[in-house]
Amino acid sequence: MSTFLQDLRFAFRVLAKSPGYTAAVILVLALGVGGTSTVFTIVNGVLLEPLPFKNPSQLVTVGGAASVPYGDTLKYWGQGKIFSIVATCANGGVNLAGAGEPERVPAATVSASFFPLFGAHPEIGRGFAPEDETPDRNHIVVLSHRFWQRNFAGDKAVLGREVALNGEFHTIVGVMPLGFGYPGHTDVWTLRIANTEQRRGNELGLGTDKQPDAPVGCRFLARLRDGASLAEARREMNDLLDRYDSTFYPGQKRARGMILVHPLQELLVRESRTGLWILLGAVGFLLLIACVNAAHMILVRATTRQKEIAVRLCMGASRWRILRQLLTESTVLALAASAAGILISFWGVRAIQAFGPKDVPRLSDVRLDVRVLGFALGLSLLIGVFVGLTPALQTMAQDLTRTLKQESSRATGALRKRLRGAMIISEVAMTLILLMGAGLMIRSLRNLLQTQPGFATQNVITMDFALPQAAYISSSVGPNAAGPGVSRVTEFYQRISAAIGSLPGVVSVAETAALPLGGKGRGGLYLTAGRCKAIIQGMDVSADYFRAMSIPVLAGRVFAERDTSDPKYGIVISQAMARSCWPGGDALGNFVELQGGGFKQGPRQVIGIVGDVKFQTLGNEDSFAGRRDVAPGAVYYLPANPLDATLIVRAESDPKLLVPAIRERVRRLDPGVPLFNIRTMTEVLSDSMSAPRFRGFALGIFAGLALVLAVFGLYSVVAYSVACRTHELGVRMALGAQPRDILLMVAREGMWLALAGIALGTIGSYWTNKLIATFLYGVRPTDPATVVAAAVILAAGTIVACIIPARRASSVHPSAALRYE
């Protein structure tokens, strides 16, 4: 122990005598450790950290062909032996009415088995019981800890009180503990009704509010029994479906898919997994570059100390003792870099949470924890050994006689020269790979920014609203009704459009169930039209939708107000769908059949064709078909008035100025309907770009840091080589070599290393760029322009790194060089 403390004190003294060297190594390693710890923190919190539930590895989702028209579906699928408990959950949002303004609250309607499935117990009160799943007993609610603290100030007497959700009063029976909020960040849980025939009008209607880690729609959940596997669960569920078919459809062959059973955590993170692993791989390259740079600086430092080490060896110090001392110094540097890296990681995580994409699940809950600190510490120790071991061994292998005679300083040594060359080549190669990846992402982002979405975004504001099912699902006739037999939903739409349309400065008002690029949609229906037989994305819109969004009408007409209530209304399709389904150009007047969602509609005549709109993303559109004969971006439009929708208002000038007046108009019509998620279309467009913008920005930062480190590393190699060859260069100049000859000779040696690294990096990027191919738009992974641009940028940096020390060498006077040493 005393020897170790002595080594430690000596290491601090040696490092303190060279503050510039010490600061440079710590800074280089801190960038690598900090960047890696930042991305690892995100990857750990989002992908690796187990869900905060009891035995989370046993939690699975059941999807695919899981819905059967037979009584209580949940009870039917619970007949298997592979699951210990099954539950269902439909998530979205509800309107909360109170003393002040109504607000939108994340909510979920669940089965009584939902909380036991997760092993969660209320902090106060109780959860749900199976006997509560009836129309006369299901008006109860469980609150989240956050909602309880915010709305009831943590009052434990909250049990038995009532809250108005979607216009219906629910009695509070329990409060969940802090940290439980599945799905997403749910604030209130209500209870389903077990008998499907009694659900209409009695079960709480949920809007399809988008949450990052909460898939919209009904989700069947289950817990595997101890020792059960996913393969066994999938086999049993599909056997159960076969038994169902033989019982209820004897002698018939139904067209259906397979039942899919996946781990719950996989469902939550599947859309973010690839992008995060790519970022971790990119920052891993940055860490390797930093380590190579630090190793080279330590090698140069050790070379300058050869005489000191030789003297210590001659005085009786063992080689193991010297080796341990050198490793102690490198470890001290690495640990100091670890402390700085953790600080960088703390800031980096906060920056990603603030400016990163909003659709990454659990991102807001990510924190630096013991696992991450242990990762940073272990990484630093490995780096300390890695960057210190090779230089230490090289120093220990020196010839003591030559060193004491100062002969080793006149030549770098073939082995050390090859080692430094290999370091620089690998560093340049990894830098080029990062530069190419960043270049492809940035070019893809530029292509996205130049893509026309198909609608105008200026002076348009959007806001979501949801009408309570219990209050609006019935028909209304009376003195205030819009007309005989008009539903209350249609009446609300007509009155709100008229009220907002009368405001000064309003150009048009419309409603839609699925806002383009807005992050939610109704999904697709199976469509038969012309040559198309596939699932295609559909949109429910009001009559004035195309005018409000400035979507051009290319042929025929769009909807009128009468189309909403007419059972024989037509259908409007996009130009892409017209081209795909009717290649001959005769789409107008033809018929389309739609089926899905438990119904089959009669033929609908195509009454209009409108311009193509980027519905899901600005990039590669998913046709929902998985079929090559359906064009990307194919969309059909139906006139409808859904319970939850988005209000679209086009104004003559800044639409945000209209928000208070719009709120007032809605409040007059229904005080219990809140407006939420208020954004301009420009903001909607910007939000849809958050993920590609973040990937391009992150890879750009990593590539920029790698370029700086690579240039610095090459500069240090050439500068050190010049310093070691000062006497040789003086002899050359004394024998008649011109400064230009010296400059070209020195620069050529560095450039050969850079060119070798560029060649190796170009070969390596052929495989690495394929990993990011799914994130690219309008550019190929092997895009020649990007390859050339990255190579030119890197070559320009290496030329600068070589020219500076080369000019210094060529400017040395021969007499001064000959007197060197």
Protein model, in words:
By secondary structure, this protein is an alpha+beta fold. Helix content is 48%, strand content 16%. It is built from 23 helices and 22 strands. The strands form 3 sheets. A 6-stranded mixed beta barrel has the order 2-3-8-5-7-6. It has a 6-stranded mixed beta barrel with strand order 13-14-20-16-19-17. A hairpin with a 2-residue loop joins β13 (524-529) and β14 (532-541). Residues 197-202, 212-217, 407-412, 475-485 and 623-628 have low confidence and may be disordered.
- Class by alpha and beta content: alpha+beta
Beta-strand portion reads: 15-25%
The biggest sheet, with number of strands, parallel, antiparallel or mixed sense and barrel status, is: 6 strands, mixed, barrel
Which sequence of strands runs across the widest sheet? 2-3-8-5-7-6
Specify the number of helices.
23
Shape: globular
Mean pLDDT: 80
Unreliable stretches covering 5 or more consecutive residues: 197-202, 212-217, 407-412, 475-485, 623-628
State the helicity in percent bands. Answer: 40-55%
Number of strand elements: 22
Q: What's the N-to-C terminus distance? A: 41 Å
Computed CA radius of gyration, to the nearest angstrom: 34 Å
